[in-house]
Amino acid sequence: MSENHLNKKINKAVSFNAIKNMVFELFYNQGLQEELLEQLTNLFTQNTVAQRINRKVVRTNVSDTQSLNFQKRKRKHVFKHGFS
């Protein structure tokens, strides 16, 4: 199947990020609200992804003990230092 034959859906990650970045302008700038909504709509329609059939990934359930062991002993903790 080529990508043209697949159904399209909105990319949720791009949409969420765009809404998150424009939320204050949407609520506080009443004059620009229509323009911002039009920009968001254009962004949503341009950034679509192909909806692939039967592409579910089987995820394994991790027990609480395994998760705790990972968090305590195996995970690499990285701390950013503010040294200039």
Helical stretch count? 3
End-to-end Cα distance, whole Å, is: 53 Å
Number of strands: 2
**Unreliable residue stretches:** none
Strand order of the largest sheet: 1-2
Structural class based on helices, strands and sheet pairing: mainly alpha
Q: Roughly how many Å is the radius of gyration?
A: 21 Å
Averaging pLDDT over every residue, what do you get?
A: 82
Order of H and E elements: EHHEH
| Biggest beta sheet attributes | 2 strands, antiparallel
Strand content: 5-15%
Q: Percentage of helical residues?
A: 40-55%
The rough form would be described as flat
Explain what you see.
This protein has 84 residues and is mainly alpha-helical. Helix content is 50%, strand content 10%. The chain has 3 helices and 2 strands; from the N terminus they run βααβα. It has helices at 12-28, 33-46, 64-74; strands spanning 7-10, 48-51. A two-stranded antiparallel ribbon has the order 1-2. The termini are far apart.
